[in-house]
Amino acid sequence: MSDTVLYDKQDHIVTITLNRPERHNALNREAYDAATEMFRRANAESDVRCIIFTGAGRSFCSGDDVAEIMAAGDGLAGALGKTSPDSPTADSPPTPSNTPAVIVEMRNARSPIIAAVNGAAVGFGMELTLVCDMRIASESARFSEMFIKRGIIATDISYDLLPGIVGPAMAAEMLLTGDMIDAQQALSAGLVSSVVSADALMEAARQLATRIAVNAPLAVARAKQGLRLKQEHQREEMQRYLANSLRDLSQTRDHKESVAAFMEKRAPVFRGE
């Protein structure tokens, strides 16, 4: 198995770490495939309740490893497509349907994903953080939608998600200038929910993951899906989904356990049933 992406599971929490620090965790083909497999694995393991996504070394992810991808003859389509067998060839332009497989796995994740942004998250690296449900940053974290500075534009990920996270005006500024913002600016914009020192980042991420993981996993999964539908502006579908979820969850063993635990003045034991 590739060591370009690491997988660690402890107490219902999985940590997925991009592990190419010498390349600022830039993604080559091997790393794309490994990251896709790690998120697929986390989603397949029924006891996983939260995922932490981070990078090794001084950077979170600097986007595509353009030198390797271009050297392989993939061109721009290869740099932006990164999909399955029906992806376009190198001499055909990328299309909006070319969602990278790792993004598909992240969006399909049953468990909430926390981005622990340890350093620079630029280009597609920043888009990876947007797909996560929550983002916390170290003081050395930096963010940039730098596509425009390379004569291209961001993928639909940024246009779908960034305005809802930081607001339309800030999203426009980031997408049109490609400027780098630091951790405190990201906090002010609402891009991250907290900023901590570099040596406290993983502990802070784990504490947040633990606060999520102690809750009923079926309810957490439904709540995550409701948030996703809201992000995608599917209001009517969201309302139907949440109403049906509330009905279904009220019949689960975990809900009955929470009531019993409250009555018995003890901590509930959730089993995902």
The biggest beta sheet is recorded as: 6 strands, mixed
- Under CATH at level 1, the class of the largest domain stands as Alpha Beta
Helix content: 40-55%
- What does the overall shape look like? globular
For CATH, the homologous superfamily of the largest domain is named as: 2-enoyl-CoA Hydratase, Chain A, domain 1
CATH fold-type name of the largest domain: 2-enoyl-CoA Hydratase, Chain A, domain 1
* Rg measurement, Å: 19 Å
Number-wise, the strands total 10
Task: Count the domains.
Answer: 2
Task: Identify the CATH architecture of the largest domain.
Answer: Alpha-Beta Complex
Give the strand order of the largest sheet, numbering strands 1, 2, ... along the chain: 1-2-3-5-7-10
Beta-strand content bin: 15-25%
Low-confidence runs of at least 5 consecutive residues? 74-97
The N- and C-terminal alpha carbons lie at a distance of 33 Å
How many helices? 12
Please, could you describe this protein's structure?
This protein is α/β, with parallel strands linked by helices. Helix 1 links the parallel strand 2 and strand 3. About 9% of the residues have low confidence. The longest helix has 16 residues. Helix 1 packs parallel to helix 4, helix 6 crosses helix 7 and helix 10 packs antiparallel against helix 11. The strands form two sheets. It has a six-stranded mixed β-sheet, with helices on both faces. The chain has a four-stranded mixed β-sheet with strand order 4-6-8-9.
